[in-house]
Amino acid sequence: QLQLVESGGGLVQPGGSLRLSCTASPFTLEWYYIGWFHQAPGKERELVTAIGSGGNTYYTDSVKGRFTISRDDAKNTVYLQMNSLKPEDTAVYYCNARRLVDYWGQGTQVTVSS
After folding, report:
1. CB 104 within 8 A of CB 22
2. pLDDT tens across 28-44, in order?
3. Category of 84 on φ-ψ map: left (φ > 0), alpha (ψ -120 to 50) or beta
4. Which pLDDT tens digit goes with each residue over 100-114?
5. Taking a C-beta distance cutoff of 8 angstroms, is the pair 111, 11 a contact?
6. What's the N-to-C CA distance of the chain in angstroms?
7. Is the pLDDT of residue 54 over 90?
8. Using H for helix, E for strand and C for coil, what is the string for the chain?
9. CA-CA distance, 6 to 20, in Å (whole number)?
10. How far is Cα 21 from Cα 65, in angstroms, rounded to an integer?
């Protein structure tokens, strides 16, 4: 079974940056569609951004121009570079890998606050 581990979350001031990582084992992520979701307290989990095996990307409107998703298949890792962070970005961020079935990581907390 595919295992996903997120890292890189933390506390950052508004306007700051964080880079999240999602590393998979024991199988390669190469053929998976990878998404980053976030879930704020009391709200549903929402798709933020995604990347296909061919490198095509999707961004929800609220993060366009601020977030960048990328993948390094050699390292079996997908990254989420988050710039110009806002308090409304505060949430638990989850990595998802999809190929017929969904696999989820445990999540990493991102808190944007002064």
Report:
1. no
2. 888 899 999 999 999 99
3. left
4. 899 999 999 999 999
5. yes
6. 40
7. no
8. CCEEEEECCEEECCCCCEEEEEEEECCCCCCCEEEEEEECCCCCCEEEEEECCCCCEEECHHHCCCEEEEEECCCCEEEEEECCCCHHHCEEEEEEEEECEEEECCCEEEEECC
9. 7
10. 19
